[in-house]
């Protein structure tokens, strides 16, 4: 209902505002609106149908999306972009992908309402989607920003896919120009709502026998189950007639998750197990499918495919982060020093007892704005770099350190317990560009692990424009990874070499043969770890690309790829693939068509794909596109065997 109302208002807005702006009224008010109020943007819809005869479907059978992206321009000073996205896949995702946003911008600031993302620094706020509001102000050299909203919705589940509802507040204040010199101070607070997940839900899930099992009369088997928030005893029952009647196997049994049962007759092909709470008969579970009880048969228990979730493995978290980011430059930016640092206090479980600060090493001032708990830790992260930039040469020396206990709930991903030294150089001479870099990474910063792992990465590359039509690039990457373990089972001794050669030829931009691209790469990996003796991998890859101009309206591209790999000197494979596509423009460029044909071969597996796309410009503002895609896969080593896939889609886009 809410979605219908939103789109009704959107349609009214699209129709009403252009009409208002285009009225031929002589009044001063109408002229004022036309001169100072404009709206533009796009609205569209996408629909897709997918079908396959493979039991492992890769996509939903039907998908639909609606989007609306208007931008309002006020007085040529303020731009207010809106963002609305509704998808049939949105609410079914673990975190909702439907988006609604309003983002007005003007010369010295911007505003966010709805769904948005913003970045303060790599260690504080970066890469998370916020549903709420925010503002960025930058009058002159003054810098201020704040953002507040929810970054997660509550989802029942375990540590991998469950989550509490999370609220985040972040602010940044600073002075300066990011391209020259500046300093920012950053504050972030994120906290989960404990009440957003109901921990009182009770459930029982049968693990076995759960369907399609075969039980021999007289055999001893284990009836197993999983329960959440179920106290007291349980009752186990058996139905031999598909659930019409039940007989008691065991009553008032302890809820320990299993019961050893000697299978009894009579024979049944519609048997079901029922496990229920003795205290609350509404809490129970049945076998998902029938199983068989027979005489003189081989007992067979089918492995359970239920996704057993530990609801208590996801915990409500809290986080406080204080950070700073800045840059100092000298001599017209010839010399610059960058820094990014933050300290965090992180609690993994808000349900833990509050900490006695007298017996902890957490600074006392933190307790005034944050309540430390058992399991709370504080740590820091920072990186610095010094850069020199000249016309023909530049170098950058950096150091990065992220302590093992550092966490920020405002970042999408952050790898901690790492120390890194780096140096990067670039040399430019005429048409030659040379890059050289070295990075060393180590972990175990607090000597808490049994051994320390080190990575050394050397990268070199040269790009040369040999002639006006020939450009050549050579790059190399060498990785050494090892640890100081004295135990053969945990010892790491690994190195990897990658070489890449690429050549681009511009033959005749107006002729039949337009471009040629040839690329060759070599990857050599040697793992000398004791448990993986003689683990050497060598991969050769060769790719060829040709571009053709058949007519003024018809062009084509052909590509071929060959990959030869060898693992352990015994496992060898050869993959080759080919693709041919055509692009055609017709009816004064109103109709744009593309035909793509491709095939791939590997280890007896073959795939063939064909797709056709036609886009037609109904008007200068309206486009409709119809696409068809078919794939045939013949597999000898793939568990799904051979199958077909067909996808057809229709999209419409209107610009206003």
Detailed description of the structure:
With 656 residues, this protein is mainly β. The protein has a domain at 203-306: Immunoglobulin-like, CATH 2.60.40.10. It is built from 2 helices and 36 strands. The chain has helices at residues 2-22, 28-36, and strands at residues 37-52, 62-74, 78-87, 99-102, 105-106, 109-116, 130-137, 142-152, 165-176, 182-193, 203-208, 214-216, 220-228, 233-239, 247-254, 258-262, 268-277, 284-286, 291-294, 318-330, 335-347, 377-389, 393-402, 418-429, 432-442, 453-467, 470-483, 493-506, 513-527, 535-549, 554-567, 571-586, 591-602, 605-617, 622-634, 643-655. The strands form 3 sheets. The chain has a 27-stranded antiparallel β-sheet that branches. Strands 12, 14, 15, 17, 18 and 19 form a 6-stranded mixed β-sheet that branches. A 3-stranded antiparallel β-sheet has the order 11-13-16, with no helix packed on it.
